[in-house]
């Protein structure tokens, strides 16, 4: 009877120490598994934040879109790229500025008009007409889609 009792006590002690050690991360303080969970959480936090697209990539996409329609020469491409780069960087600063939404809209509208004026100075007469048409189409995309569907 004593041997059965002692076996049960030993089994109970072994099981309870195993449960206790599992709860405390096998080293008594819970650091083992906890570290792995924290690093996984840190990784998920960094993945949640969207990556900022470099200004140069955005400018390159804009140039690729407008170049075929406007038929820009190399000098125009370089000059317009510089204007767009400066404009996009300024726009980023305006968006991050701690001012009212209304002021942000006014500032970005003024920046857009200034940028368009600078680009227009670099274009010839035919290119200006096409540039204005592209801007109108970009501002009113629904109208342009309906025209395409009716044709």
Highlighted features:
about 150 residues; mainly alpha; about 85% helix; about 0% strand; rod-shaped
- Cα separation of the termini: 98 Å
Overall morphology: rod-shaped
- Total individual domains: 2
- Name the structural class: mainly alpha
Arithmetic mean of pLDDT:
79
Summed up, the helix count is 7
H/E element sequence: HHHHHHH
Count the strands?
Answer: 0
- Uncertain regions spanning at least 5 consecutive residues: none
Largest sheet: none
Name the helicity range: over 70%
Radius of gyration: 32 Å
> Beta-strand percentage?
under 5%
Oligomer: single chain
Describe the protein in words:
This protein has 151 residues and is mainly alpha-helical. It has two domains: 2-48; 55-150. It is built from seven helices and no strands. Helix 3 (55-70) crosses helix 4 (74-96) and helix 4 runs antiparallel to helix 5. The model has no long low-confidence stretch (mean pLDDT 79).
Strand and helix map with partners:
Blueprint: H1 2-23, H2 31-48, H3 55-70, H4 74-96, H5 101-122, H6 125-139, H7 141-150
Brief sketch in words of this structure:
By secondary structure, the chain is an all-alpha fold.
